[in-house]
Sequence to fold (578 residues):
Amino acid sequence: MSLNERVLVCTKLTEKDLSRKDLKAWIKQHNEKVIQKKGAILLGSFRKYPSAWFYTQIINTTNENQILVADEFNRLRCDAFELYTIKDNSVKKWGSLNRSTPFSKYPLPFLTYALPFTIQPKDTLNLLINTQRHFGVHEVNFNVSNYESYLNTTFTIFLTRVFQLTFFMILAITMLILGQVFHYRSMTYWGLSILGIVFVYITTWGFTDPISNFSNIGLSGSNVSVFGMMVSLTPPLFLREWMKPIPKNEKVFDAITYSLFVISLFFTVCYLFPTPLYNLIQNTVNLSLVMIVLTLLNMLRLFYYSFLAWIRSKIYYLFIGLVISYAPFILSQTTLFSENANVFLKSDSVIIFFITVGKAFVGIYLLREKLVTRKKLEANLLQLKETMDVVRKNEITAIGRNLHDNVGNLLATALGYLNLRNVNSETVQNLIKNAMTEIRFLSHNLVKDEDLPIKVKIERLAEHFNEFSNINYIFTNYSKNINTQLSAEQQTNLYYIIQELFTNTLKHSFAKEVILQIFEDNKRIWLTVEDDGIGMSRRETNEGIGLKNIDIRAKLAGFKIITDSSTQGTNTTIEIPL
Fold:
């Protein structure tokens, strides 16, 4: 039975006043007007209400002794609990409990402020309860029930909480293990965020109270639940990792993320400051209100960026998971800044159920996303292997054709001249030199300096072509980050594309000069290859093996290639988005 609407509240009573003959009348005269609802009694700030007394009468209408239990059910905003009964001006103290009481000293086998007392048959007792608060808001929730009913109800609640914590722990450990197995940081960080929720509930439900009272620092059982919430808010790991592929204003995102991180970290560390410094800060700033504001700001940030991910990248599961998790909680806080705001952070079973479902929903979709991505990656790798096999086959065919058509024909012609009666040695020498030049060209194309940066490789490629051709190859680099901004795969494909373009100009363009330039801005790197030759015919554009290889490599690397050809020359642009 709830006592919250059945008690008189007094803050001026002292233990000396307990023996007053007119106690009931005196309390009625000095009764405090506070917010009393069935769910809780909200007194207000601990500075104004560090201690309070609650008076009511208990009547036993049966003909048997009754063992009753008076308990302060929430424990969240109450630091000490004392129980008295008064009959015929005789005061009896049934016990007291506080945050630092060892569990072995609890009269009942649960971590609640609960004290049993006895009432005689057909008897009436004046029941007095004293509570104290040393941090934040002073709020209590009183119940009186018979002994068996209390044990059954509390045991059910205890099992529910154990189940909830066990589920969260299993979910968190699963996310951490899978994150490591799949090398998926978002999943690992989601597991860590769930561990943060576990820490919040452990501190909120009082499991850490007996070991949280420190004499030299500000942290105590009174504020450990707020400290637990601050710890869970501080690390921005998951959102930063998860938002990496989402288009956004990086500067604004980083500014918001790091600002909230620094502010949260500072106020979290405040609880670990020496007691005098902590008290100075606590007297200057309402730390519990800071926690509420930071909680709301972090929720808004999560909702905003998850909605942004849905709109811009069609990734919807985080937003839906957050709605499932926190919508009931937020709805319960609609009166947060009003006088009736007495339920903030009150973790009832409905709210915890939805948080559990929401967190599990996001975890399942993270796992699904990774498995789908891995399956797509395996399919892409298979397609890449098949495509590269085609490219290699084309390149080997081209090399064989060059050896047969160019080198072979040159050597055969030289041999024919040698079989003439009057051998023209100069002609034979020129044919052999041309064959050697062709072989050098092929060998240079086959030998790659794979470990060198792309800029150096392109410089050497231009130098090699200048060695054995009559075309002047000019390379100018205006990019500062091409070596670092492109992946190894992109650099390899870019090199082969440029090599193919150079080869085409050498064989087909009749150009005198080829100019390669590299540029960049914040969004892309682009290269231009210009020659002053005769241009490409439509047949060359449609049927050339080299051009097909260029298209294949561009698709593999995510490049965009634009070719503009006329009788005045050919201009090819390679665009690489960053």
Remarks:
- DSSP finds 16 helices and 16 strands in the chain.
- Confidence is low (pLDDT under 50) at residues 335-347.
- Residues 8-145 form a domain with the Immunoglobulin-like fold (CATH 2.60.40.2380).
